[in-house]
Amino acid sequence: MKKSVKLLGLLTFVLLISGCSKIKDVDTSKSTLVTTISGETKSDKVYWKTDSDGVNTASVKKSKFSIQMPNTLSKYSIKLSDSKDFKNSKSINVAGVKPLIGYPKFSDKFNSYTGKFNGYDLSNVTVSEYGSQGLSDLYKSDEGNVIIRGTIDDDKLVGLSLTALLMNGLSDRESAETSYSLGIISEALGSDYKLVFKGLDKTLSKGGQKITVKSKGTTYEFNSKKGSMITIFIHK
């Protein structure tokens, strides 16, 4: 009788162990454009889904996984599991973000500026008229070294970035495009462009130090790697 009880207890323990999720140490971090959900697991892959997405998978490397989701206006939950049937799944809440501006209004304002800047005709520096939902490139220079990216949800611009790849040998025209684009963005968002450009000058002179500027409710985060690249993240 005692042996049967011990066997039953052992069987129960094994069943409990096999039914537990192998996903652990889940962390959620939010940046200007995306939310990253990361964690650890002994499984080969992680299955995930939201109310609006079907079943997706994330690869696992050295027991770690990472899922990036474009930021949204509304909060939502994402389910994680090590099995396709989502038994013993973990539910993670993701917070919403505030919008910068309606995207149609932003693109109209950005694209309305034309003319020369530092001797260059930059009338072709325009963002896409209709932004795709989620994260996408809104503009890229001909040489590919100046990139404007945006996250859009429900026709609202919720995050924006402007990157200049200095290590590729930014041309004089691309330098002009970078300054021109930053000026138009700050104007379109109702920011004080003089204050914004002070942040740009400061981060370039510091060579790698992160500089944050806030103007009329909008935050500009300047990230510079000396001689390599500069990215400006813009959000509420």
Structural topology:
Blueprint: H1 2-19, E1 24-30, E2 34-40, E3 45-50, E4 56-59, E5 64-70, E6 76-81, E7 90-94, E8 101-102, H2 103-112, E9 116-117, E10 120-121, E11 134-140, E12 146-153, E13 156-164, H3 172-188, H4 193-206, E14 211-215, E15 218-225, E16 229-235
Antiparallel strand pairs: 1-2, 2-5, 3-4, 3-6, 6-7, 8-13, 9-10, 11-12, 12-13, 13-16, 14-15, 15-16
- Strand fraction equals 35-45%
Segments where pLDDT lies below 50 for 5+ residues? 1-19
| Largest sheet composition | 7 strands, antiparallel
Distance between the termini: 67 Å
The percentage helix is 25-40%
Give a brief rundown of this model.
This protein has 236 residues and is an alpha+beta fold. The protein has helices at 2-19, 103-112, 172-188, 193-206, and strands spanning 24-30, 34-40, 45-50, 56-59, 64-70, 76-81, 90-94, 101-102, 116-117, 120-121, 134-140, 146-153, 156-164, 211-215, 218-225, 229-235.
